[in-house]
Amino acid sequence: MLHRPTVAVVDDDESVRESLPDLLREFGYSAQAFSSAEEFLEYDCLEQIGCLILDIAMPGMSGIDLQQHLKLNGQNIPIIFITAQKEEFLSPQVIRDGAVDCLYKPFSDTSLLKALNSVLHKN
After folding, report:
1. Would the pTM count as exceeding 0.70?
2. Do the strands 49-55 and 79-83 form a parallel or antiparallel pair, or are they unpaired?
3. How far apart are CA 98 and CA 38, in angstroms?
4. pLDDT for 90 beyond 80
């Protein structure tokens, strides 16, 4: 059986944490959901994460803070940011800092799959 990378979803919105992993499984990925950046960092299998779908605005450690933390600790997990904030500076900033994409909520299944494929199917 082909091993598919685990995609982690980090979002404080419960509806996103419930629906997005289901969609990821439909795409053929295993998925793990976390309610905060801090909860994600406590996960003891970070090396199994092939991609991180990360909300920008969360209580406590923000998605951008988590991106910087991972970078500083040499954990190069590809990140797809998701956000409801429409500030024009956000997308270029997080991509310049290494994110794969920044999708604005509500985003289409197709745009998410395209971003995932750009990360997880580089051969």
Report:
1. yes
2. parallel
3. 20
4. no
